[in-house]
C-alpha cells in the first residue's frame, strides 16, 4: 500500500459500548505504526447476534449498512475475530460481494499480513496467557499471528494456555439459551487459565473475554482480562492503564 | 403422520436434558476421558496422510455427486443388486421398513435375528418393532450389547455405550450374562461378550445389518467394523437383510478408495479398521443365500429438498464431530434425545423430523456454541455451523414474530439499523452503571439472569468509544 | 396409493427440482506415493495391530508354516479346497473344505491356513477375495487362529492401488490385525469375535 494506509476502524457494537479502551488502543497502535485511522460514525453492528440466532432478515440491512459505511477505505480493522468472520464470510451471502467485506481484517491479521510487522514496539511486563478464540482460529484462520505479536512484546512473560483451542462456552446467545452447558465449558476454561498462574488473560475478542472475565470476576480470582490490542498499544513511555 | 422414531418420545428440549446430564459427575468424567483419548489419536492418524485435505475435498464431491443425481444412482444400484440375486425393497418411512424386516424374518421361520451395529435400524426403532411382532433382536456389537443389556439408550454414533466406564460395564454383564466377566479389564469384558454371543452366531438363521456404503455401478455393499461380529452376521446366516439409507451410495468402486481412507482414521483413529466386508448380491456357496436390501427414506428426501441443509446427507457416521465437540463432551449424547447426537445429530435429527414446531427437535440447532471444531474434522466437509444457523432461522420462522425473543430481536434490530437510535440507546444504557457493584454487575433480570447466574457483567463505561472519538477527534 | 419405490423416487426428483450444479470430483489425492521398502512397511504396519509377522524367502515357506503351527499347538487345521499341497505340512490333521465343512467343524478347529489376494502396506491390511488358496469367508472367521500367507507380488502401497487390483463382484474381506474393539472407553483391545490371533508369513521373493 503506497503511503499511509487509510484505515477504517470498525469498533464493533460490544467494544464501542462496553470496552472503549480496546478501540482507543487500536487507534493508538495503528497510528503509532503510521496508519491514518478513521472512525465513521455511521457504523453500528455487523448483525452477528441476529444472524447466528436465526434472525437473518434483521442482519441483512446491517450488512448493507456496513458495505456502504466502509466502502472507501484501503482496509477495515476490527478488534474481533467473530465480527471479522461474520463480515468476511457471511455478509457477502446476505448482501452480495462488496470491497468493504474483502478488505476487512481482524487486528492481528492486519498487523502481520497487511502491515507486515510482528514487533509493534510494545512493552508489557506482566504474566500473560492467550485464548485463541474459535472464530479467529477456525473461521478466519489467523493461526499463530496473535502469539507472534505477543512474543515480540518486551517484558512480557507469555505462558501457554492448556487446551487453548477449546471453546470457552460463550457462543453469543448460546450462553443464555444453554446457560448450564455454557457455564460448564466456562468452568473448564477458567481452570486452565488459573493453572497457568497468569495475571492477565488476553484474547482477540471482547465477547469471549466478557464471558471468561465475568466468570473470573465472579470467583474473585484476581485475573484480569485484556484485549490483545491493549497489550500491543502499551509502551514503556505510555504503559497500559486499566481505565474503563 | 406418525412421529419419526429418530427422536425418543418424551425427551425434553436440549437445555433441560443437558442440565440433568451436567449434574452427573461420573458421566462427565467418562466422557472427558473417552473424547480426549480419541481426539489425540485421530489427530495423529490424520497427520500421517499428506493428502488428507485433498481426500476430504474428494469425499465431499463424491457425496455431492450422488446426492445431485440420487434417483439415477438408486435405480442403477437396484438393477445391479437384482442382477446378482439380491432382492431390493423400498421403504418410505420407519414403519414400512420395520414391517418388511418382520415379514421377511417370519417367512424365514426365525424367532430371533442377530444384528450388526447399524444406525439406520436404530433410527427406525427396529428392535422394538420386531419385539412387538414376537421376534427377538440380538445386538452383537459390544457397545450395542452393553446398551441393550443395560436397558439403556445409546449416546454416541460409533460407541453407543461411551457414557459407561469399565466398572459400570462389568456390573451390567454380571447382572445379565450367564457367565460373569473375570474382571473389569477391557480384554476380560470383550471375552465375556464373545462367550455370550458365540452360540447365537452359530445358530442364527437371519441377520440384519446396515450398510456403510453401496456401490451404484456394481451393486456391492460395504460394512466397516472391528470386532468380527459383522463378519459373523454377514457370513453365517442363511438370510441377510440390510437396511440402508438412500444416501449411502457412491457412484463407482473406485470412489471407495477415498472413503476407506477417510472413515477409519476419522472414526476409530486407526489406519484401517480390523474388518471391512464387501459383498454383491448372493455368492453361491459363500455366505447368505438370500439377500434382501431395504432402501430407506424416513425423512431423507425432506433433507434433500433443503438446499442449505442437504449437505448433512453426506455424513458417513464417523462421529469425529462428536469427539471434538465441547458441548457433547459435557452433556453426552442422550441429552440430544436421538440416536444421532452431537453436532451431526443437531443438524440431521431436525431435518429427518422435519417439523420445527416439535420443541425438542427445534432446540437441537441451538445446542452449539458455533465453535467450528466439528467442521474442521468432518471428513466430508459438512459445514455444520452453517447448517445449524440455517436451521435456527427455520426454527425462528416456525415460532412466529410474537415470541418475547422475536420482539426483543426486532426492537434491537430497529435500534441497530440507525446510528442515531443506536447512540441514544447506548447513552440510556449507561444508567446501568448504577446497578454496578465495584464496576461489575452481578445480577440482571431475566433473560440476563441466565448470564449473571455464573458471570458478572461489565458495567458500561462512563464514555463509549464513539463519544470519546467525537470529543477528541470530531 | 403409489408404491414405495415410485413415491421415494418421486420425492427425490421434486427435492432436486433446483437441479444442483454438476459436480467435478477432484482426484488430486495420491493414488500412490513413495513409501520406501513396501515389504518392510507392510511388516511393520501389520505388526502394529499386534499381529505376528514372519518375513521369509520362498524356500523357507513350508518349514515356517510347520514351525508356526507347531508353536501354536495346532493339530486340526482348516484349509480351502485349493490349499497348495506343499503348504499341507505333515504332523497336522488337515481339514479341507471339501465336502463343505460344517460350522461346528470350523468352530472346533485349532486354526486356519490361507493365502491372500492383496496387501496394503501403508495400512497393514490384508485383503481376501475368495480366490486362490483362500476359500469362502467363513473359513477365516470361525477358527480362533489365522495363519495367512502373503506373497511379495501381492503387496501394494496404498488403498487406491489395492482397490484397483480387486474385483468388487467377489466377496471381499479386508483384515487389519486380529479382531478388536474400541468400545470400552475408546481404547483398542484385541480379541473379540473374529480370530484372536493373526499370524502372517510374508514371502519376500515370490
Automatic annotation (TrEMBL), chain A:
Signal peptide start-end: none
GO MF annotation, one: oxidoreductase activity
CC terms in the record's Gene Ontology section: cytosol
Domain of life: Bacteria
A Pfam entry, by short name: CCG
Positions of the Cysteine-rich domain: 7-88, 128-212
PANTHER family documented for this protein: LACTATE UTILIZATION PROTEIN A (PTHR30296:SF0), UNCHARACTERIZED PROTEIN YKGE (PTHR30296)
Protein name per its UniProtKB record: Lactate utilization protein A
Naturally occurring in which organism (per UniProt): Kutzneria albida DSM 43870
UniProtKB/TrEMBL annotation, chain B:
Lactate utilization protein B C-terminal domain residues: 399-471
Swiss-Prot/TrEMBL keywords: 4Fe-4S, Electron transport, Iron, Iron-sulfur, Metal-binding, Repeat, Transport
4Fe-4S ferredoxin-type domain boundaries: 312-382
Domain LUD: 74-282
Protein name: L-lactate dehydrogenase complex protein LldF
Organism this protein belongs to: Kutzneria viridogrisea
UniProtKB/TrEMBL annotation, chain C:
SUPFAM superfamilies registered for this protein in UniProt: NagB/RpiA/CoA transferase-like (SSF100950)
Matching Pfam families: LUD_dom (PF02589)
InterPro entries noted in UniProt: FTHF_cligase-like_sf (IPR024185), LUD_dom (IPR003741), NagB/RpiA_transferase-like (IPR037171)
Top-level division of the source organism's lineage: Bacteria
Residue span, LUD domain: 108-203
UniProt protein name: LUD domain-containing protein
Protein's organism: Kutzneria albida DSM 43870
Amino acid at each position: 500500500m503506497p503511503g499511509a494506509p487509510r484505515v477504517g476502524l470498525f469498533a464493533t457494537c460490544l467494544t464501542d459500548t462496553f470496552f472503549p479502551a480496546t478501540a482507543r488502543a487500536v487507534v493508538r497502535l495503528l497510528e503509532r505504526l503510521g496508519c491514518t485511522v478513521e472512525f465513521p460514525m455511521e457504523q453500528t453492528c455487523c448483525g452477528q447476534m441476529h444472524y447466528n440466532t436465526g434472525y437473518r432478515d434483521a442482519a441483512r440491512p446491517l450488512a448493507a449498512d456496513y458495505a456502504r459505511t466502509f466502502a472507501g477505505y484501503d482496509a477495515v480493522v476490527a478488534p474481533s475475530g467473530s465480527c471479522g468472520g461474520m463480515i468476511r464470510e457471511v455478509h457477502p451471502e446476505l448482501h452480495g460481494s462488496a470491497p468493504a467485506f474483502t478488505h476487512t481484517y481482524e487486528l492481528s491479521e492486519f498487523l502481520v499480513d497487511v502491515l507486515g510487522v510482528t514487533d509493534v514496539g510494545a512493552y508489557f511486563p506482566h504474566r500473560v496467557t492467550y485464548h485463541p478464540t474459535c472464530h479467529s482460529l477456525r473461521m478466519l484462520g489467523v493461526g499463530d499471528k496473535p502469539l507472534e505479536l505477543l512474543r515480540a512484546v518486551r517484558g512480557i512473560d507469555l505462558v501457554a494456555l492448556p487446551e487453548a483451542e477449546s471453546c470457552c462456552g460463550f457462543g453469543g446467545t448460546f450462553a443464555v439459551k444453554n446457560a448450564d452447558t455454557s457455564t460448564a465449558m466456562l468452568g473448564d476454561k477458567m481452570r486452565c487459565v488459573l493453572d497457568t498462574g497468569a495475571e492477565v488473560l488476553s484474547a482477540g475478542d471482547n465477547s469471549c473475554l466478557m464471558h471468561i472475565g465475568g466468570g473470573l470476576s465472579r470467583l474473585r480470582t484476581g485475573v484480569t482480562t485484556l484485549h490483545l490490542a491493549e497489550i500491543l498499544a502499551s509502551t514503556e513511555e505510555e504503559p497500559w492503564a486499566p481505565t474503563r | 403422520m406418525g412421529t419419526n422414531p429418530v427422536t425418543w418420545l418424551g425427551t425434553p428440549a436440549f437445555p433441560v436434558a443437558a442440565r440433568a446430564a451436567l449434574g452427573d459427575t461420573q458421566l462427565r468424567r467418562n466422557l472427558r476421558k473417552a473424547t480426549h483419548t480419541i481426539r489425540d489419536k485421530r489427530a495423529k492418524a490424520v497427520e500421517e496422510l499428506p493428502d488428507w485435505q485433498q481426500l476430504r475435498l474428494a469425499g465431499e464431491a463424491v457425496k455431492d455427486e450422488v446426492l445431485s443425481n440420487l434417483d439415477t444412482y438408486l435405480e442403477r444400484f437396484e438393477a445391479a443388486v437384482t442382477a446378482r440375486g439380491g432382492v431390493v425393497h423400498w421403504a418410505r418411512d420407519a414403519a414400512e421398513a420395520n414391517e418388511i424386516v418382520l415379514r421377511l424374518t417370519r417367512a424365514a421361520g426365525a424367532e430371533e435375528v442377530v444384528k450388526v451395529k447399524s444406525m439406520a435400524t436404530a433410527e427406525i426403532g427396529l428392535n422394538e418393532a420386531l419385539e412387538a411382532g414376537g421376534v427377538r433382536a440380538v445386538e452383537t456389537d459390544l457397545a450395542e450389547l452393553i446398551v441393550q443389556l443395560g436397558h439403556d439408550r445409546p449416546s454416541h454414533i460409533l460407541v453407543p455405550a461411551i457414557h459407561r466406564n469399565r466398572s459400570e460395564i462389568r456390573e451390567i454383564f454380571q447382572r445379565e450374562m450367564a457367565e460373569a466377566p473375570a474382571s473389569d479389564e477391557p480384554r476380560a469384558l470383550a471375552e465375556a461378550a464373545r462367550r455370550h454371543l458365540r452360540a447365537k452366531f452359530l445358530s442364527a438363521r437371519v441377520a440384519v445389518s446396515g450398510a456403510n456404503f453401496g456401490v451404484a455401478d456394481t451393486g456391492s455393499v460395504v460394512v466397516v467394523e472391528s470386532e468380527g461380529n459383522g463378519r459373523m452376521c454377514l457370513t453365517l446366516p442363511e438370510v441377510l437383510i440390510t437396511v440402508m439409507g438412500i444416501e449411502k451410495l457412491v457412484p463407482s468402486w473406485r470412489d471407495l478408495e477415498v472413503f476407506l481412507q477417510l472413515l477409519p482414521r476419522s472414526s476409530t483413529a486407526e489406519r484401517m479398521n480390523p474388518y471391512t466386508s464387501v459383498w454383491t448380491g448372493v455368492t453361491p456357496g459363500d455366505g447368505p443365500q438370500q439377500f434382501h436390501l431395504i432402501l430407506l427414506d424416513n425423512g431423507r428426501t425432506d433433507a434433500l429438498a433443503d438446499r442449505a441443509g442437504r449437505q448433512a446427507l453426506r455424513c458417513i457416521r464417523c462421529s469425529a464431530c462428536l469427539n471434538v465437540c465441547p458441548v457433547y463432551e459435557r452433556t453426552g449424547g442422550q441429552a440430544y434425545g436421538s440416536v444421532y447426537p452431537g453436532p451431526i445429530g443437531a443438524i440431521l435429527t431436525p431435518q429427518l423430523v422435519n417439523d420445527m414446531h416439535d420443541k425438542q427437535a427445534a432446540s437441537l440447532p441451538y445446542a452449539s456454541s458455533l465453535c467450528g471444531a466439528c467442521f474442521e474434522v468432518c471428513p466430508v466437509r459438512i459445514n455444520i455451523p452453517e447448517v445449524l444457523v440455517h436451521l435456527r432461522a427455520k426454527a425462528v420462522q416456525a415460532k412466529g414474530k410474537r415470541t418475547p425473543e422475536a420482539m426483543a430481536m426486532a426492537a434491537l434490530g430497529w435500534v441497530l439499523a440507525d446510528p442515531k437510535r443506536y447512540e441514544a440507546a447506548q447513552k440510556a444504557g449507561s444508567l446501568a452503571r448504577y446497578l454496578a457493584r465495584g464496576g461489575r454487575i452481578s445480577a440482571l433480570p431475566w433473560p440476563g439472569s441466565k448470564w449473571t447466574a455464573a458471570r458478572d457483567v461489565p458495567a458500561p463505561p462512563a464514555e463509549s468509544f464513539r463519544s470519546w472519538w467525537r470529543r477528541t477527534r470530531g | 396409493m403409489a408404491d414405495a419405490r415410485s413415491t421415494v423416487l418421486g420425492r427425490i426428483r421434486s427435492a432436486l427440482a433446483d437441479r444442483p450444479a454438476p459436480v467435478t470430483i477432484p482426484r488430486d489425492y495420491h493414488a500412490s506415493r513413495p513409501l520406501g521398502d513396501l515389504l518392510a512397511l507392510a511388516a511393520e504396519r501389520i505388526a502394529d495391530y499386534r499381529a505376528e509377522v514372519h518375513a521369509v524367502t520362498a524356500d523357507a515357506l513350508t518349514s515356517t508354516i510347520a514351525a508356526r503351527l507347531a508353536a501354536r499347538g495346532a493339530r486340526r487345521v482348516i484349509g480351502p479346497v485349493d490349499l497348495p499341497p506343499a503348504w499341507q505340512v505333515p504332523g497336522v490333521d488337515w481339514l479341507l473344505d471339501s465336502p463343505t465343512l460344517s460350522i461346528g467343524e470350523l468352530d472346533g478347529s485349532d486354526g486356519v491356513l490361507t493365502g491372500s489376494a492383496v496387501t496394503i502396506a501403508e495400512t497393514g491390511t490384508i485383503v481376501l477375495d475368495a480366490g486362490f488358496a483362500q476359500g469362502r469367508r467363513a473359513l477365516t472367521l470361525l477358527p480362533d487362529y489365522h495363519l495367512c500367507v502373503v506373497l511379495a507380488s501381492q503387496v501394494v502401497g496404498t488403498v487406491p492401488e489395492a482397490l484397483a487390483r480387486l474385483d468388487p463382484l467377489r466377496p471381499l474381506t479386508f483384515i487389519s490385525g486380529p479382531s478388536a474393539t474400541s468400545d470400552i472407553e475408546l481404547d483398542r483391545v484385541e480379541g473379540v469375535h473374529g480370530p484372536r490371533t493373526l499370524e502372517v508369513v510374508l514371502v519376500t521373493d515370490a
